[in-house]
């Protein structure tokens, strides 16, 4: 029966891909608008694809080098020989998901604009379903690859003489997550730099210096700006969530195998996260088709329509996973409580994000108030709001960790406790297909708005896209909560997997004894004792400080990168205004693609160093301060990274919405001194919330994955 | 012989106080300048004393409550009965040092201004020696109190029936450091809020709105601004360094007793930090009297004169401590290496501070460049520079920790390794008397400049005070490096003391067995095992996250506090300009003291919550997640706190100097757009570098001290 259940996940995954294709054809049949709209959409599409091609060229080189490195390491016996290949496929599918997502998004925006010309509901349908396509692509590919690798290694491998234990299989599969993480970091950092460089360039020269409105076709950077929304919000987010989704499932599988090795339930424990994710796809699909409003729907009714779908999927996943846990892991209903805890944590973190960043609440209103006193107080206040905003997420996640751990039997079997924590993350992300849709339709509507503006459509169209965009900000908060929470829980699970990998590495190298312990049967607690992974070990302490330091260096580099790239952009836009006569009069067309190229080049150049740091630092740390040092390093990067990520994302969001409050007419409205101050806050917040903040979330997991791969170096000392 | 040596420290401490008095009389004999200068100095003095009185009123209430709490706890057997009293004296002497320092500083400024009317060297002599007075007061009181308590508990106690072991004595004395830390936090936070509120108020309304220059007597906030420099830079810094000085000695003494308990060298190990500190005072005194220039000295020659004194004291302390270690701890010369390491770490961290914040180097020049593009890029760049600046300090401190630990025999005896780390901190701060002088003459010169400006003295006088001020910024960098480095090392030493206190607490409550271990002879490693203080314990993980969270909340609260208080100030200044006719024409005098009162009130109100958080959170964390949770909490607060403190201090310093670069005429000079942007950066940097950053440094140690006091609550779970 369990073996039959195993086929459920790949089949559901293919179903997701099938429905993604179906929805894609549905979307493509929608009218694309007039010639002007098509032309603009085409320009954005060309720019976005040019960017992706350039980005992938560099990523391929990087992956090739890493592959060779891993291959050599595996030849030296430092790595399982499957790892280099699993690593490649993880990167490949992540890249593919980003590429397809981009194709969908760049085709959906003009259609959404055209839909909004008819009515709000048509606009919502097109943008929401396009978001759903991306969600289904991400979850479909993710679950398909995971289950396929599992079946290959478990059933096909033995046929060709590659027989591995369940633990070895699942630990090896983590390197699939490593590929996804590395590609996601490139996508987030590169996309983040591109989008903000283009944004700043368009705003500083176009809006401030030339005094033309946002998305004005006379602005040479305007196409780049819209391309940026796609490569940052769509491709970047796609790769990010793909990585989170796979990471949570893979880490749960790895721990499931280890935690239940002695109870004989290990196969079921590995199966459970795949099945929960499979069920999540099914219920999300139903939920997606539940979302539709009426032509006359108000914003509130639309919000309700969307929420209805999300709530349905969430409740169904809760009910059905209770059954699953009961059937697969009898006597361990605590695991189900973890899934419940995960959903609650995600929602609370999301709601707290909303509270601290939405213009409807005190903190952001306070920032708009501070703007009356000038830019400095705006910055100080926003920074304070962002810093304060960590408390609810940290308290909630901390409570969730303790709850999941102890409900999962951690007091008796620590690994089982961490498996339980990992399941929290899986539960949270199981409904990603629909959650992604609630996250992604906002950026699509934003792009549709750009299209409408540039094509000179009626004001009403722009109002409708703006309404969808702002609705998107509200529904996206929960998605963000899920991403942050699950990433954090996954990272914790990877901490333990690190020790397991160390053990496997020792066995692989025929080391059978560690001091007084036999490696074969060593428990996690004994590993901790042997490697002195405790707070009095100065190596661990130093590792923790180095982990925190890495977060700050990474933040500095990515912010600097935005500044540098924006500089190039500003110069290019100024050059075009100066050299191409007739731009301002509308008699000559600016060279849009030149701006796209500049931003692309800047992003590519600047993304390499931060990515290298995330990827290689664990190897260096391991070489110098050993196993305890690396675990300290991970603890430092997880705790400081999470705090900085929340602070930066929320400060950025709050500044953005404080500006919008003023633009709505409060404190003097647009062009007032307060507005100027709020614009400064918003500009500072841009790299905070769209480049550095979200990248940190990936850095945390990449570091953990990378530590696992390079564990051999940390063991050299012993 | 060792008992005779014991008397060395209190005698030297009294000598320090004697020379402080002597220098004070020397300074008081210097002419105070004309009537106008006296009047202004008097106004600043009155304001500063009014502030201190108000501050101490609140601190006394807080201490009274804490005393009662500790007294009750000691009655319940949760605390040693000496602790409440030791706690009080720590706070008392810290407050006294701040009070006396303020008396010195407010009397020195007009005399320095008058000195500068004669020549630069006279100005330097007065300001430097006044700084030295404060340094001698701090070290004199500190060492006197410590050695007195030690003699009391060790020799007088047994006479009246209070017999304690060496470990108990030194552990109890830590609560003396707790009193100093708590008072220091109040001084830093309160002073930091006051000075920045006054600064922002004076700048925003006076400079920007009314368009009058800095320190113009027509500005109602100008006296408050000068008072602020005293309460922030003088009283705040004094309390801060007093706390660091005592904390480093006390933590080394406590660990020395434990680490060498079995070798019979524990008495000598306790003596060593006191003796090093005593020698430090002697050599510093000689160094102080070595500092004098000629009337015709250039700035470079003056810098050399100051450095000569510092280098002399440092080299002598290195040489003599080698002899001391050789004599007291034969066979443990590794401890001496730690002292050397400490000095190197302090200097490297100081130099790195200089590199990242001085206008002579790339990072700050880069910020002034970014200012050309507006305030947003200025902020982003400064934030990036601050974040990047953590790398040298963290790498250096990490290397220093490992070096000290292993040289101190940590591989065999972990406690000895941590004792060695603590000695690094003691060595660093042993020359505090002269280091303090190099730190403090800058603010005195700054105040002298204010006095000169308000009294309408020759431009030349202001130029000379400015030169001293800027020279002070250079020499102060090393002092900052010492403060940050030693604070961090002390906090690490306190981590281990925490476990020792837990052990004593158990014994005190007649708990003799912990699982398989006898409490009496339990080692630190066994404590770690028993309480599972390792990375797989979710309580420890959660503690780490909570520690990091506390840093962010503390930062948010203190920054918000500056904003709020500045708001009151702005309104008051505006009110005076509006209601008191003739201010701008110079026919009516503004109400200076009203501004002082407003800033005082704001600071007092806003400092309470952050102080409470630092003081009480360890108790709450301990109650919920136990010993392992508290140790994780401390790890989180130490690592994240250190990173944030360095980032904020350096970003603030860099913004400040980037503004100064532009004011020197680059990028369009004063009143250019670039200058406006740089002013925004400077204003954001103010609370970063003068309120939150330095307060975090104290928060770290206060948390550790507070955890030690409340260890009984964390043990309730067991």
Characterise this structure.
Two copies of one chain form a homodimer. Chain A is an all-alpha fold and 718 residues long. Helix content of chain A is 83%, strand content 1%. Chain A has helices spanning 2-6, 8-29, 35-75, 83-118, 120-156, 166-210, 222-259, 266-290, 299-328, 334-357, 362-370, 375-388, 391-407, 414-429, 432-454, 459-508, 524-530, 538-579, 592-663, 673-709, 711-715; strands spanning 513-514, 517-518. In chain A, strand 1 and strand 2 form a beta hairpin. In chain A, helix 4 (83-118) crosses helix 15 (432-454). The radius of gyration of chain A is 25 Å and the shape is globular. The mean pLDDT of chain A is 90. The interface between A and B is large, with 83 and 83 residues.
Tell me the β content of chain A: under 5%
Number of strands of chain A: 2
The share of residues in helices of chain A is: over 70%
Going across the biggest sheet of chain A, name each strand in turn.
Answer: 1-2
List low-confidence stretches of chain A. none
DSSP helical segment count of chain A:
21
**What is the ordering of alpha helices and beta strands of chain A?**
HHHHHHHHHHHHHHHHEEHHHHH
The oligomeric state of the chains shown is: homodimer
Rough outline of chain A: globular
The chain pair forming the largest interface, with residue counts per chain, is: A-B, 83 and 83 residues
Q: What summary fits the major beta sheet of chain A? A: 2 strands, antiparallel
Gap between N and C termini of chain A: 44 Å
Radius of gyration of CA atoms of chain A, rounded to a whole number: 25 Å
Q: Give average pLDDT of chain A, whole number.
A: 90
Helical/strand content category of chain A: mainly alpha
